[in-house]
Q: What sequence folds into this?
């Protein structure tokens, strides 16, 4: 296993102020299985160093600052401290015993109609690894979903690192340019071109390697607030190449637009390209590319599911919601439809292309 330990550094101590030295040492050793590493001076101890669970604490009677909080990630939080999961040491340090791999929790869905427009070059903010983000669902539907328009202005190598996400699902659609990405157990790097998309299943390690100048992708995931973990111990590409590997009951999908065929579409007036994501997620998520067939008016099927998202990839259209007004949508505009709505589309340009994501897939 790799370590990032510097050859001149032996260990790290976290100093905590501690006026009740003896009581605090007893608390940590008796309740949390820490071990006493050192204590001094012998005649009147004022400093003790204790160690456990990969950390060393320097308890100092003359220490300054707050008493802090320690989070211990456990396989079974109830197996320590007689089942108590929130404790407070005599020196004031708070201890939280939490599950190392807790189940994913989803916030309650707050449905609303969302219409997000591109406002020239406004609305972008810096994210990680030199990427710029534009929020496509500002209210996040109560925290259930997030959609982002992401760009990298400068082409070339991307200063990314191997990482993974703790998520329910995550889609990446290449909108403009190209991007090269490495994925765990998927062989050499893949290069996503315009129109390609991937399903990044929960926990799959990956790293963005390189991109074209002005590359843009659309990223959609759930829940909106999810954790991203670095994995410095895995080098990509790794030696394994496992077809149809299961990641959290999902399979990795690399949909390539150049090889895709059109199929019949459930929406009148459109033909569509299926990405295979519905099958790879056992019907949880559906992703289609819709193309207009030059009819004056198209009625969309009633949306009865949890989530329906439309992003205008090319062209323009008018979206009319029954008794709720109409909205002209241009390229890079997007919307979220509440369940039960069946809007009509009209005034379409000859070249109209939409990215559609639904939960469930059907």
A:
């Amino acid at each position: 296993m790799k370590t990032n330990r510097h050859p001149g550094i032996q260990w790290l101590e976290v100093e905590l102020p501690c006026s009740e030295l003896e009581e605090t040492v007893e608390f940590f050793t008796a309740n949390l299985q820490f071990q006493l590493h050192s204590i001094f001076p012998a005649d009147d101890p004022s400093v003790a160093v204790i160690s456990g669970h990969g950390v060393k604490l320097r308890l100092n009677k003359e220490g300054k600052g707050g008493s802090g909080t320690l989070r211990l990630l456990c396989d079974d939080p109830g197996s320590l401290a007689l089942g108590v999961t929130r404790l407070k040491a005599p020196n004031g340090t708070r201890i939280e015993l939490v599950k190392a791999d807790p189940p994913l929790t989803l916030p309650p869905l707050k449905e609303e109609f969302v219409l997000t427009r591109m406002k020239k070059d406004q609305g972008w903010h810096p994210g990680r690894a030199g990427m710029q983000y534009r929020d496509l669902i500002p209210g996040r539907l109560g925290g259930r979903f997030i959609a982002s328009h992401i760009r990298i202005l400068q082409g070339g190598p991307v200063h990314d690192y191997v990482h993974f996400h703790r998520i329910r699902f995550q889609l990446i659609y290449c909108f403009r340019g190209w991007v090269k990405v490495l994925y765990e157990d998927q062989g050499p790097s893949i290069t996503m071109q315009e129109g390609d998309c991937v399903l990044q299943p929960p926990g799959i390690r990956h790293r963005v390697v390189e991109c074209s100048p002005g590359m843009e992708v659309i990223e959609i995931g759930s829940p909106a607030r999810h954790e991203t973990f670095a994995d410095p111990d895995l080098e990509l590409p790794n030696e394994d190449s496992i077809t149809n590997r299961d990641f959290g009951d999902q399979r990795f999908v690399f949909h390539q637009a150049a090889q895709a065929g059109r199929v019949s579409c459930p929406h009148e007036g459109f033909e569509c390209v299926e990405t295979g994501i519905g099958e790879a997620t056992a019907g949880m998520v559906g992703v289609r590319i819709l193309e207009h067939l030059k009819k004056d008016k198209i009625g969309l099927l009633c949306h009865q599911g949890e989530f329906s998202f439309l992003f205008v990839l090319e062209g323009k259209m008018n979206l009319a919601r029954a008794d709720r007004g109409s909205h002209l949508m241009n390229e890079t505009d997007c919307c979220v439809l509440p369940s039960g709505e069946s809007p009509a589309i009209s005034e379409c340009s000859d070249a109209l292309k939409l990215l559609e994501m639904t939960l469930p897939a059907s």
